[in-house]
Q: What sequence folds into this?
């Protein structure tokens, strides 16, 4: 008999996981079901969508807290500063509207697909993840949480409960661009998230992340360094050097694209995102 | 087995389900509401779209127990109280927005969700919104026309 737990209270959920480490979390099921090779889910699961503490986006004294069971649709509808626009753009491209209504941001992170659309956006927002277990809580930078394809730093009995974005990273304007074999309902070949803070006509800070081009989505520090301090004019995009993009990434050849094409696409998308942001430079102001 | 209760098309219902029972299977096998179809079973095709608390979701990708306490609406709840077709259903008939009809329940439910959120969508917005509903008779063109008509807009603006 397959078991399903649906706790209303986080401490109850953590107690179940502490006692039964084989119980798999479910938070929207949009990845879980398609990955189930059997006619029905096997084993015990715990549905996290009834947990109040995991739902919705709120402001905190330090910045923003995104509950792990926040759906893509809730992210699209949330009142957030322009720095989050890339996350909303990614949310609008996840699956279809019905998937956006069910799939969750925490599920996207824990599923840890190299092509997870939420990851580059949250990396470019300097996100930290809040993990909870019956033993207590800890925070980790998102870049240290996802450790490989389908692998995370979650320990036994531990749940991702929220994603935190510091106020300092909630500045500037942002853009998400994704390349797929078709426009919709598609797994990314490459996607980029770019956030720029422009002060007095110059780039004060830059966050550039690329997904689907390495085992885990990555920030591109060399590309960021080449942008900081430069004038926010249409010439800015030319500062994105293909060599800097390629040096940070390690794409694979697969049915969707070969590695060379992915690198080319990543560089083009980063330049395009930078260019679109400086064209609307007023929005990049801190 | 666990007990699940929800409101389906305005009526309170209760049933016994296993943890793994999908919402679509509860609707079809538990309640006999077979208007909601299962096409791909992998949340791609959209034949199983229903509304849960006003949101369009794929009922093959949701457990029945996740809908505990929710308001669910299926294609069987779309007609007017007197049994006549709703505006959207009538528009699908008038504009031949179906061929084999298998995808139609999902198309109608997605169209209703779209028009609830965007009462006068452009043709492009309609096509974008239907990205999660597949029609393998390639009947999209008339489906788009039907939705334009249901929103009270001129269907001649749809590209031929």
A:
């Amino acid at each position: 008999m397959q078991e399903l737990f649906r706790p209303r209270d986080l401490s109850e959920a953590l107690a179940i996981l502490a006692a039964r480490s084989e119980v798999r979390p479910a938070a929207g099921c949009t990845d879980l079901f398609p990955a189930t090779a059997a006619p029905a889910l096997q084993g015990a699961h715990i549905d996290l969508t009834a947990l109040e503490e995991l739902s919705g986006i709120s402001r905190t004294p330090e910045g923003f807290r995104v509950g792990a069971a926040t759906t893509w649709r809730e992210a699209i509808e949330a009142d957030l500063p322009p720095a989050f626009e890339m996350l909303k753009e990614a949310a609008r491209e996840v699956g279809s509207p019905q998937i956006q209504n069910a799939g969750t941001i925490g599920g996207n992170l824990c599923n840890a697909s190299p092509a997870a659309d939420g990851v580059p956006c949250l990396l470019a927002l300097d996100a930290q993840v809040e993990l909870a277990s019956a033993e207590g809580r800890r925070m980790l930078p998102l870049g240290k949480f996802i450790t490989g394809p389908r692998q995370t730093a979650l320990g036994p009995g531990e749940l991702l409960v929220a994603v935190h974005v510091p106020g300092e990273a909630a500045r500037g304007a942002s853009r998400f661009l994704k390349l797929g074999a078709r426009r919709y309902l598609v797994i990314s070949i490459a996607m980029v998230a770019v956030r720029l803070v422009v002060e007095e006509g110059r780039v004060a800070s830059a966050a550039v992340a690329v997904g689907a081009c390495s085992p885990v989505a990555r920030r591109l520090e060399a590309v960021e360094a080449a942008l900081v301090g430069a004038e926010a004019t249409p010439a800015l995009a030319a500062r994105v050097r293909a060599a800097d993009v390629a040096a940070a990434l390690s794409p694979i050849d697969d049915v969707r694209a070969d590695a060379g094409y992915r690198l080319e696409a990543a560089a083009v998308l980063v330049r395009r995102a930078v260019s679109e942001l400086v064209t609307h430079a007023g929005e990049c102001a801190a | 087995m666990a007990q699940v209760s929800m409101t389906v098309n305005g009526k309170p219902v209760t049933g016994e389900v296993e943890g793994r029972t999908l919402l679509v299977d509860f609707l079809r096998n538990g309640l006999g509401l077979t208007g909601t179809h299962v096409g791909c079973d992998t949340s791609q095709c959209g034949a199983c779209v229903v509304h849960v608390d006003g949101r369009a979701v794929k009922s093959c990708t949701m457990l029945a127990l996740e809908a505990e306490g929710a308001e669910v609406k299926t294609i069987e709840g779309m007609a007017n109280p007197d049994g006549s077709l709703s505006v959207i259903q009538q528009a699908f008939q008038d504009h031949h927005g179906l061929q084999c009809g298998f995808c139609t329940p999902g198309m109608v439910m997605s169209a209703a969700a779209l028009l609830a959120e965007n009462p006068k969508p452009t043709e492009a917005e309609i096509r974008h919104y239907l990205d999660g509903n597949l029609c393998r008779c390639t009947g999209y063109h008339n489906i788009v026309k039907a939705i334009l008509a249901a929103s009270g807009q001129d269907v001649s603006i749809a590209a031929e």
